[in-house]
Amino acid sequence: MKKLTPDQAKELVGEIKRLKQLNELSKARKLGLESLSLVKNDELVDFYFQILNILAQIERRQNQIEESINHYLDIVELAKEYQSHLWQAHAFRHIADIKTEHDSLEQAEMYYEKTIAIYQRFGETESLSYANSLRGYALLKTKQRNEMVKDLWQQAENIYRSLDIKEGVEECRQQLEHIELIMGKTND
């Protein structure tokens, strides 16, 4: 088996991303699957994470949900092995997003709670990833009509505002206004 240098691995990941951006998803997926064995070693482990992540994204776009979740679960297992907590949280969040989209709300809730706990444990509560996790959890709680939804949207809005992510702030504001409208009607 050929061993890649970090520069070659970076170039390979770049090519997979380029194919994905060009919407050549089948080619990108094929190259990604072929590339995994080339970067599966301690020196190149971050590239292995990246390729698994890209594969999961492609499969999600191709509606290959089980394959996508399996690649995210591969990230979780690898992240445990390498104690890469942020990759683990990242994978959990995407699994939660998929579960929410497909109305597996109890499973989604479990994954969001794991994600948020990891970000909190490792002091990542001001990051875009944490805000995106809160956003996803808020969407889930909105579907469940849960009382904690307002607090989640407010937390996400505060982080998006601190990071100057205008689209995130706007979405949170719209959600909060919608909640106020609904709560106002139920309180009348």
Helical stretch count? 9
Structural class label? mainly alpha
Report how far apart the termini are.
Answer: 70 Å
The residue-averaged pLDDT reads: 94
Q: What low-confidence regions span 5 or more consecutive residues with pLDDT below 50?
A: none
Computed CA radius of gyration, to the nearest angstrom: 18 Å
Description:
It is a single chain. By secondary structure, the protein is mostly helical. It contains 9 helices and no strands. α1 (6-21) packs parallel to α3 and α6 (105-121) runs antiparallel to α7. The chain is elongated, with a radius of gyration of 18 Å. The model has no long low-confidence stretch (mean pLDDT 94).
How would you summarize what this structure contains?
The protein is mostly helical. It is built from 9 helices and no strands.
Key structural traits:
79% helix, 9 helices, 188 residues
Topology of helices and strands:
Elements lengths: L5 H16 L3 H11 L9 H17 L3 H18 L2 H17 L3 H17 L6 H16 L5 H14 L3 H22 L1
